[in-house]
Amino acid sequence: MSEVAVSSVESAIATANSDRTGALVGYLPVGFPDLQTSIDAAVALAENGVDVLELGLPYSDPVMDGPVIQAATQRALQAGFRVRDVFTAVREIRSRVDVPALVMTYWNPVVQFGVDRFADELAAAGGSGLITPDITPDSATEWISASKRSGLDRVFLAAPTSSDERLRMAADSSRGFVYAVSTMGITGERRDVDTAARTLVQRLRAVDAPTVCVGIGISTARQVTEVLGYADGAIVGSALVKALADGGIDGVAGMAAALATGTQRPEPAEPS
User: Fold this and answer.
1) In angstroms, how far is CA 240 from the centroid of its own chain?
2) 3-state secondary structure of 179
3) Which is nearest to 240 in space by CA: 14, 6, 24?
4) pTM for this prediction
5) How far apart are CA 134 and CA 139, in angstroms?
6) How far apart are CA 51 and CA 213, in angstroms?
7) Which residues pair with 157 in a beta bridge?
8) Catalytic positions
């Protein structure tokens, strides 16, 4: 397998921008509260308006994650999560729904598993690629090579503090989309998505990033609508994890459906 011209993630986001105002990307950790429930929950997201799945690989030192996601991933680890469970989850999810599935993982588990081996197993399971929050393109030579060989997407992060040179590097090296961090700090729900996100997306457009999604702090349909006014996709994590923790599959399905209303185009006004 080798890199194709257009990724499934990019295609899904483009379709969402054509049919609606943009894409909804939904995050849940694999193995929370147990492996099968996490699979069923991801399927529920896809069936309730989520365009791209972001499946978190639980890790013992989640430096970017807020308290809701940290608690969920720690519970998954305590329940016996193993890296290979990610491939099991992706395979079953993709057999049930036709929605691209990216794995969000810190870099150390990939290195420990073997970069080429991880890429091959993810591709064989039907996964679309990786979101790697703690590795930059200039230190990801092995991953870039493996992803090109296996046809996987690679999503790098861009932050408001990134230099223009760093933003260009992220734009040039990413495939699928660039993940624009809406504010500095950890993930979690916020009342208002940081206005720095809009400026960051503009800066990424200026360095020719073709597809940009904004994450961190988005938890309501109104915020989804706001973000899709200037970005290609809105990424929601903590709000979905909390909905799963509090209300199970029905709870997370309802939250996904509610968030998806933020991607709808407004109804045209009735002529007076």
Assistant:
1) 12
2) strand
3) 24
4) 0.92
5) 10
6) 12
7) 179
8) 54, 65
Segment (H or E) for 108: helix 107-113
In three-state secondary structure terms, 85 is helix
For 224-262, b/e burial (b = at least 16 CB within 10 A) is bbbbbebbbbbbbbbbbbbbbbeeeeebbbebbbbbbeb
Other C-beta atoms lying within 10 Å of the C-beta of residue 33 = 16
Rg (CA), the chain: 17
Residues shown for the chain: 272
User: Taking 60 as the threshold, does the pLDDT of residue 4 lie above it?
Assistant: no
Chain-centre distance for alpha carbon 271? 40
Contact 55, 94 (CB under 8 A): no
pLDDT tens digit string along 175-189?
Answer: 999 999 976 444 444
Q: Is the pLDDT of residue 40 over 50?
A: yes
Domain 8-260, CATH homologous superfamily name and number: Aldolase class I (3.20.20.70)
Of the candidates 140, 46, 143, 51, the one whose C-alpha atom is nearest the C-alpha of residue 96 is 46
